[in-house]
């Protein structure tokens, strides 16, 4: 499949924006998947797989920035990480054997639930210092297995689910949660890419182009923006905006506006 210079430029710019959104809030895949499916017209399965290339490299860039700011605390979270990995394996095995359309139907209603959860307790999202809560292992294991499953299946929105759990139920600040989220996404996506590649679903040319934009943006955001004054407040606002935009996209609000204009 041949692409125009215009398509390449838009793909790069969109991936740069997605990298920033992923690092601060999550759900940047709303942008990249839209580019891959609507702008580049890739098959849904290929778009889903190709999107993971940028996710992996951008997460590595973000992780480098977070490490320089000493924001990682992974030593106490191996149960969470391992649960997510097993879930991701189950999720990617499922997605290569089924279509995305049915799950996308569920996804848009899950975004509505996420918006309510994020708006319910804003004080927890914008706090500057953690108030860590010990969560029972029998709650953590199935919860993060499900998150891993979702991430392996479709990726889009998995960062928001992680942030909701880390911030509201574990007491992390939003930036601490973003750092841990980045570690989990790197491990999950590495596993998932092997499965997608074995099924020849990755368009590497586009995937690597978008990975460059996402990686540069992820590093810059994590290295410099994560230490800005009131960054938790701005990340919280961005998170709300991204969820609202995702809901509008999934419910085709923009299409309704275009129809009314015509």
Distance between the first and last residues' Cα: 32 Å
* Average residue-wise pLDDT: 79
Low-confidence stretches: none
What string gives the helices and strands in order? HHHHHHHHHHHH
Class inferred from helices and paired strands: mainly alpha
Number of strands: 0
The share of residues in extended strands comes to under 5%
Main beta sheet? none
Which range best describes the helical content: under 10%, 10-25%, 25-40%, 40-55%, 55-70% or over 70%? Answer: over 70%
Q: Compute the number of helices.
A: 12
Count of the separate structural domains: 1
Overall shape: globular
What features would you describe in this structure?
The protein is mostly helical. It has one domain. Helices cover 77% and strands 0% of the residues. It has twelve helices and no strands. The model has no long low-confidence stretch (mean pLDDT 79).
Secondary-structure topology with pairs:
Blueprint: H1 5-24, H2 29-39, H3 44-68, H4 78-95, H5 101-120, H6 122-126, H7 137-153, H8 158-169, H9 174-198, H10 204-224, H11 231-250, H12 253-261
Helix pairs in contact: 1-2, 1-10, 2-3, 3-9, 3-10, 4-7, 4-9, 5-11, 7-8, 8-9
For this entry, give a set of tags.
mainly alpha, 12 helices, 77% helix
Short description:
It is built from twelve helices and no strands. The chain has helices spanning 5-24, 29-39, 44-68, 78-95, 101-120, 122-126, 137-153, 158-169, 174-198, 204-224, 231-250, 253-261.
